[in-house]
Backbone:
């Protein structure tokens, strides 16, 4: 996170970002809304997230050097081969600002999470 400020909603979070981070975060926000049209946008752990069936699908957060994408641990394992070019940890994917967002991969991860929370 760029700040320790507590946000009331996603719009307030986005408005508080520096321009470059805001632009990348907005692309991610739009991508997630398109990838999971039945999901609801929420603020959780002071980060933008999308929620479906009462469960958070994914979170994201702007940091100084990268956009953090938090799809929970299972997709990190399931998509390990496709994530080899990214820094990852148990439930985190770091997407450097000097690289384009991996749109197809993000859509696949969101679809994976939709199935996971739907019990499919």
Residues:
């Amino acid at each position: 996170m760029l700040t320790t400020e507590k946000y009331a909603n996603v719009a307030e979070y986005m408005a508080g970002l520096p321009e470059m981070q805001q632009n990348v975060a907005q692309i991610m926000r739009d991508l997630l809304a398109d990838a999971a049209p039945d999901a609801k946008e929420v603020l959780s752990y002071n980060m933008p997230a999308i929620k479906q069936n009462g469960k958070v699908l994914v979170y994201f957060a702007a940091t100084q050097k990268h956009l953090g994408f938090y799809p929970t641990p299972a997709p990190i394992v399931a998509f390990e081969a496709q994530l080899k070019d990214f820094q990852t940890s148990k439930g985190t994917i770091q997407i450097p600002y000097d690289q384009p967002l991996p749109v197809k991969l993000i859509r696949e991860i969101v679809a994976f999470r939709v199935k996971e929370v739907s019990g499919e």
User: Anything to note?
Assistant: The CA atoms of residues 6 and 12 lie 9 Å apart. The chain has a mean pLDDT of 94.
